[in-house]
Design a protein that fits this description.
With 124 residues, the protein is mainly β. 15% of the residues lie in helices and 46% in strands.
Length: 124
């Protein structure tokens, strides 16, 4: 019975972390609710899908950094427009540690318009 309570508490804590838009290490496929939309990262194949769910002039920009590479590499994916989605196929070596950052933006080419809304670690 104590084990079930601990599992239930862990599920509630994970839900709170996801609602805040930030979490620890993700599993094989994870959804994250972030201000303005959602992000799904699938470790197998390094597939990133983002949804813009907020009307207005902002979009979502996701940057993924490979922290394990000898020469660190990164990839990006972005979407803008309520109801729009984008799927990006990112190529990182299996087992590498990844740092994933989600920002909202108003102008894609103006980094001063970016605001970090979520960040987490994962593995390729």
């Amino acid at each position: 019975m104590k084990f079930r309570k601990n599992v239930a508490a862990a599920i509630v804590a994970a839900g709170v972390a996801l609602t805040l838009g930030s979490a620890g290490t993700a599993s094989a496929s994870s959804y994250y609710s972030v201000p303005g939309g959602e992000v799904k990262f699938t470790s197998k194949g390094e597939i990133l899908k983002i949804w813009d769910k907020k009307a207005g002039k902002t979009g979502l920009y996701v940057s993924v950094y490979d922290e394990s590479a000898k020469n660190p590499t990164f990839d990006t994916c972005h979407v803008k427009g309520k109801g729009k989605t984008k799927t990006c196929d990112m190529k990182f070596k299996n087992g590498h540690k990844l740092d994933i950052n989600v920002s909202s933006y108003t102008k894609l080419n103006d980094h001063n318009s970016y605001k970090l809304v979520a960040s987490w670690k994962d593995k390729a």
